[in-house]
Specification:
The complex is a heterodimer of chains A (about 280) and B (about 290). Chain A has about 280 residues and is an alpha+beta fold. Chain A has a single domain, classed as Translation Initiation Factor IF3 (2-Layer Sandwich). With about 290 residues, chain B is of the alpha+beta class. In chain B, strands 2-5-4-6 form a 4-stranded mixed sheet. Classes of the chains: A alpha+beta (about 280), B alpha+beta (about 290). Strand 7 of chain A pairs antiparallel with strand 2 of chain B.
């Protein structure tokens, strides 16, 4: 069995409806939240429900990477398609579990020469006193960030993402020769990469505008080699779209404290999210 | 001390217009960048939004001191580093490489500044400077500057005396504390020095073998290189009429030059006292009972 078949099987299994529960009661809660996070969530009137996934693979046509210069459009549109599809699956999976929002979403992006894969996984949550079952949000923020945002009057909406793939242009022999041993900026390379970054950001902004966000916080700009060619570089921008829910921003009034412990315990979001498999 | 160095590498303009209060025109912002930034701004028929790489904590703390994020801004430059011959047995600054490392970072920062200016920002917080190397570029490196452009909500201008948005590598938390203590950031200041450290001669190696001795040429070379980098950083702060530099970091990297050639980079945020009286709140001392 090939990896592709295995993944198909896994995806089908995930898409199948969960076993029926007796009397509409929620099955035992599964979540990757820590006890601290659970407590915080409860303090804000929320509870975790289940661990949910959304996975989508999109193919990139053969030869897309080799025969173009500049941006690899096929890959960018495959990313956009996979992101939308994965978010939709995550949402469906959350609704099936009885949740109205997903927190602490880990975003996995894998790009190879033939496909773009996006994997989203997080904890579905719902209000403790649920009078409504309307789906509310998906966010890569931790439970703590969520509670803080809520206190300040803000609300997460969804994950905004954008990507762009660029083939770094080659220098002409003449340029190469004239630059040997010199200090010089390489304008065409600079521009190609600069624009690719801008485009990834712009696409992320557009996806924020689509969800009518006031802003996108905690933007992460990931970059690295894509596909088998060293000249293909990928830029991925991911953040959480937020909206001001109250009339104005509410102050959280922080206080200055000096911890007197010998060992200063630094706050670490990773530790709050529990150990990740990676 | 501040008057001694600056022989090489600091390419910042010191002309008379550097001190003028009008905002300089952004030079050469590519159309794609302008388009992205235009989408962030409110205009009739289009609701703008902000983007920010600040964490939720930082975002809320920035709001707490009266600033609103405008947009994630960046600048980059791919730079071909020149070659400079080094004498095997001589400690010396490699001024050509120093210049390259300085100018490339400056280009990236200028572009980031231009993006922030385009957004009408008062400053850029959480600035990070990175250097990337790609497999396809021999002797080339990409210098990147990214940060979040912010604007004061009370309409006061926080631009520095060069009329540019201030830049700062302080985190949202540090920025909050800085403002609580009655200071304002003026700019990210840096100094760099690429230094070649002489190899030890045969005689020296033999004399030092098996003994505890100081190696004066190594000591002196490293000392001098650090001093040069720090002095250049201080000169930049003086130009901004800063009262001090906070959060100074001194980084040492060999990049791709081998063990004996090291870049010393010092970075910090130049600050000045803000007008008005400030009483620094007495911090509460706590002992956590866990762990």
């Amino acid at each position: 069995m090939t990896i592709r078949d295995e993944v198909r099987q896994a995806v089908t299994a995930l898409a199948a409806p969960p076993p029926p529960t007796s009397g509409g009661a929620i099955r035992g809660t599964t979540s990757d939240l820590t006890i601290d996070e659970m407590l915080l969530l409860h303090s804000a009137g929320w509870e975790p429900v289940d661990f949910v996934y959304g996975i989508s693979w999109w193919s990139v046509p053969w030869g897309a990477w080799q025969w173009t210069t500049g941006e690899v459009q096929e890959a960018s549109s495959a990313f956009a398609g996979a992101a939308t599809q994965a978010a939709k699956q995550l949402r469906e999976s959350c609704e099936r579990a009885g949740g109205t929002g997903v927190l602490g979403v880990e975003v996995g992006v894998r790009v190879s020469s033939h496909h773009v894969a996006i994997e989203l996984s997080g904890t579905a949550v719902r209000r403790v006193r649920a009078d409504q079952h309307r789906f509310e949000f998906v966010s890569d923020l931790s439970a703590r960030d969520f509670v803080l945002l809520d206190r300040a009057g803000w609300w997460p909406l969804g994950i905004a993402a954008g990507a762009s793939f660029v083939i770094a242009p080659r220098r002409t022999a003449r340029e190469w020769a004239s630059q040997q041993g010199q200090n010089a900026e390489l304008p065409n390379l600079t521009q190609a990469l600069y624009l690719a970054r801008e485009r990834a950001m712009e696409r992320m902004q557009r996806s924020g505008t689509t969800m009518k966000a006031d802003g996108i916080v905690a933007v992460k700009l990931r970059e690295g080699r894509a596909s088998s060619s060293v000249r293909v570089i990928q830029f991925v921008a991911i953040g959480t779209g937020v909206r001001l829910r109250t009339a104005s921003h509410r102050s959280i009034a922080p206080e200055m404290v000096v911890p007197l412990d010998e060992r200063l315990r630094q706050f670490d979001v990773k530790s709050l999210r529990g150990s990740s498999p990676e | 001390m501040t008057d001694t160095a600056d022989q090489a590498g600091t390419g910042r303009s010191k002309g008379p217009d550097a001190s003028s209060t009008t905002a300089p025109l952004p030079k050469g912002l590519p159309p794609d960048a302008s388009r992205r930034l235009a989408e962030l701004e409110d205009r009739p028929g289009h609701k703008g939004m902000f983007t920010s790489d600040l964490s939720v904590n930082e975002f809320l703390l920035i709001k707490e001191v009266g600033f609103h994020p405008l947009g994630f801004v960046m600048g980059s430059s791919i730079y071909h580093l020149g070659i400079q011959t080094r004498r095997w047995s001589q400690s010396q600054e490699l001024s050509k490489l120093t210049e390259a490392m300085y100018e490339a970072r400056q280009l990236a920062m200028d572009r980031m500044d231009a993006e922030a200016t385009e957004l009408g920002a008062d400053g850029v917080v959480g600035v990070r400077l990175d250097v990337n190397y790609y497999e396809w570029g021999a002797d080339t490196a990409e210098f990147i500057a990214v940060g979040t452009a912010v604007k004061a909500e009370d309409g006061r201008s926080y631009r520095n005396r060069q009329g540019k948005p201030f830049t700062s590598d302080l985190s949202g938390q540090d920025f909050w504390v800085l403002m609580q203590t009655g200071h304002v950031p003026l700019g990210l200041v840096m100094g760099t020095c690429v230094y070649h450290i002489a190899h030890r001669g045969l005689g020296q190696t033999v004399r030092a073998a098996g003994r505890n001795v100081e190696l004066p040429n190594f000591t002196q070379a490293l000392y001098e290189a650090r001093e040069l980098a720090m002095t250049r950083m201080q000169d930049e702060a003086n130009e901004l009429e800063a009262s001090g530099i906070v959060g100074v970091r001194l980084e040492e990297k060999s990049h791709m030059w081998g063990a004996h050639t090291i870049e010393f980079l010092s970075l910090g945020t130049a600050v000045a006292r803000s007008t008005g009286d400030f009483t620094i709140p007495q911090p509460k001392t706590i002992i956590s009972l866990d762990g």
